[in-house]
Amino acid sequence: MTSYYELTSLSKTPGYPVKDWYEEAKRTWLCSGCSNPKPSIDALDAYLAYPPDDVPLNIISGVGIGYAQLRFVQHIKMNMLTDQFSFGKVFDPEGSEIPEYITFRSRNLLFIRGDSRSSFRQCGVCNRQLYHPIGKRHILSNDLIGSSIYESQIHQMVVDEQVFELVSRVKWRKMGSWKLPVW
Ligand SMILES: [Zn+2]
User: Fold this and answer.
1) Which of 76, 109, 122, 172, CA to CA, is 20 to 30 A from 7?
2) In angstroms, what CA-CA distances link 100 with 55, 62, 97, 118, 122?
3) Cα 109 to middle of ligand 1, angstroms
4) Domains of the chain: which residue ranges?
C-alpha cells in the first residue's frame, strides 16, 4: 500500500475575501448551511482583501476554497491534476490578477479521518458530508480513488509518496506535512 501525506499550510494568515465578493458568493455559489461552494460549482476565481502570505498552500477563510502558489502547483505537475482539479484565478481588491497564485478545487474531497470523537454530519442545505477529525489522523483505503493528489476536506492536499518525494525536493515556507496511515 502506498503511503499518503497531508500537506497543510502553517501560515497563521489565511486569505480573507474581499467583502463585496463574499456578499456576492453568499447570494450565488456559497452554501448557507456549511460555507462551502455548492457541490455543482467548479473552478472559482477569488478576490483577496490582503496580499497572500508567501506560502505554497493556504485557504480562503469562510468560503471553503484552497489556493496555492502557481510555482507549487507547477512543481507537482499540472498534468497530474487536470482530471481531478479545476483552477481559478486570484485577484486583489482592485481586480488585478495576482498571477503567482491560483485557487484549486477537486471533484472528490478526501476525508482525513480521526478517532471515535470525530464529528460527522450532513449539511442540511447542500447534503454535503462534513467530517471534522479529532485524534489520530488517518485515511481510509475505501475513500481512495487512485489519484496521486487529493483535496482534503479542509481544502488542503493529501498526496501519495511519489508526489511527496517531489514536494520534498524544495524547502517550502510554512508548509506542514504529516504521514497519514491508511486504514
Ligand atoms: Zn452545505
Assistant:
1) 122
2) 11, 22, 9, 36, 35
3) 14
4) 4-180
